[in-house]
Design goal:
alpha/beta, GMP Synthetase, Chain A, domain 3, Rossmann fold, 12 helices, about 40% helix
Length: about 400
């Protein structure tokens, strides 16, 4: 309805409503400049600002926080009041503070993650390089040993594999991979230490290269996040074909920092056959999907034990990896049996895969990664490989 169509007797109330709405709109626009101190995004864009009413120079603003005891509440209240009072028509302000409900909170976190990924800093990691996060919700399932052996298998196939030991407190990959020495810098960037493996190589960065192996790092929060960020932003990862990241248990600061800095990352979920490990690993996958990280597949470790007599014992039960993969609708990439050679090889810095046959479990896992899960950049696509296989089969039949 346009003004000319409004009866004369209603023009006064219409004008009053326009005058009331205009300050509220300008106020909401001004509040869009207020950032959540932790998430670094506009509180309006994050959906934290609700109703705004302005009347006779007094503004009432509804603001919802993520938690009841938000430690940044005082700062947010101060910033909001300052923004509101900067509007000429507003002389006083009342803040009505609340808490987001579950759907609104989920929407906020999804938007915050998307914004963070859009503004992810530039690194020396090529955007086309597959980044594989080896994760599980709990410790003791063998993530580090799997990372070390998978990296070695991929390197032996002729690739340059970057390995980031993101377990800041429980670093172990320096020992597992037999890579030692001092990390040097060139051009303001840390240079990962390198080990040749067959036709390929492994480049490693780990706190184990920067701190004494027996030294406890009593770091928390921002210090841990900063250390992980430096391994990514302030390191020279140029030339790698893959980046494998060994992560600590859980879904806390380190996992969230990695999700923010490496939006191209995919997750390999490690579990043992037990129901307890399977359920905790499912939470790690849930974190990945909520963080817009692709879950690429499940690896079941400690699947069973085959003694020298040939009898198999399912020490930790069976079927947990398959059940988790089915639940997540991703492939079960491999089942790794208990094998003393894995532990022995790790203790001596010689990953067990180095002595493994070509059809061994880690080589099979590497081929799954290379062929299906995350082919390296420039690899021939599935259709082309299929046509190549058909061509070779036809050629073989004609020559016979």
């Amino acid at each position: 309805m346009i003004v000319s169509e409004i009866p004369f007797e209603h023009l006064s109330s219409f004008a009053d409503s326009v005058l009331t709405v205009q300050p509220a709109d300008r106020l909401r626009e001004r509040l869009s400049q207020v950032l959540d101190p932790e998430l670094g995004a506009s509180i309006v864009e994050l959906g934290m600002v609700g109703d705004i009413n302005v009347s006779d120079g007094r503004a009432v603003v509804h603001v919802s926080l993520t938690t009841v005891g938000c430690p940044l509440r005082a700062q947010i209240e101060r910033d909001v009041k300052e923004a509101v009072l900067s509007i000429d028509d507003v002389e006083s302000v009342e803040l009505v503070m609340g808490v987001l409900d579950a759907p609104a909170k989920a929407a906020l976190m999804k938007r915050a993650r998307a914004l963070a990924q859009e503004s992810a800093p530039s690194t020396s990691i090529p955007t086309h390089t597959p980044v594989l996060m080896v994760a599980s919700g709990k410790g003791g399932v063998g993530k580090s040993s799997i990372t070390a052996n998978l990296a070695t298998a991929l390197a032996s196939a002729g690739h340059c594999i970057g390995v980031l030991d993101a377990d800041i407190w429980g670093f172990s990959l320096s020992r597992l991979l037999g890579i030692h020495g001092d990390v040097e810098a060139s051009g303001g960037k840390m240079r990962p230490l390198e080990r040749r493996v067959g036709a390929g190589s492994i480049k490693l960065l780990s706190m184990g290269l920067l701190a004494d192996e027996d030294q406890a790092l009593m770091w928390r929060g921002l210090m841990v996040q900063k250390a992980v960020a430096q391994f990514i932003e302030d390191a020279d990862w140029s030339g790698i074909d893959y980046l494998l990241i060994d992560t600590p248990p859980g879904t806390g600061d380190i996992a969230m920092t990695l999700a923010r800095l490496l939006p191209q990352m995919g997750q390999l979920v490690v579990t043992t056959p037990t129901i307890a490990a399977q359920r905790v690993a499912a939470r790690a996958a849930d974190f990945a999907r909520k963080s817009n990280i692709r879950v690429l597949g499940v690896i079941e470790n400690m699947s069973g034990f085959t003694c020298t007599c040939g009898e198999r014992h399912n020490v930790f039960g069976e079927g947990g990896g398959r059940a988790l993969a089915d639940e997540l609708r991703v492939p079960l990439l491999c089942e790794i049996e208990l094998n003393a050679a894995i532990a022995e090889g790790g203790d001596h810095g010689e990953p067990a895969v180095l002595a493994e046959a070509d059809d061994g479990v880690f080589h099979q896992l590497a081929r799954r990664i290379l062929d299906d899960v995350a082919p390296p950049f420039g690899a021939v696509g599935c259709s082309a490989r299929m046509l190549d296989s058909i061509t070779r089969a036809v050629a073989a039949s004609q020559s016979s």
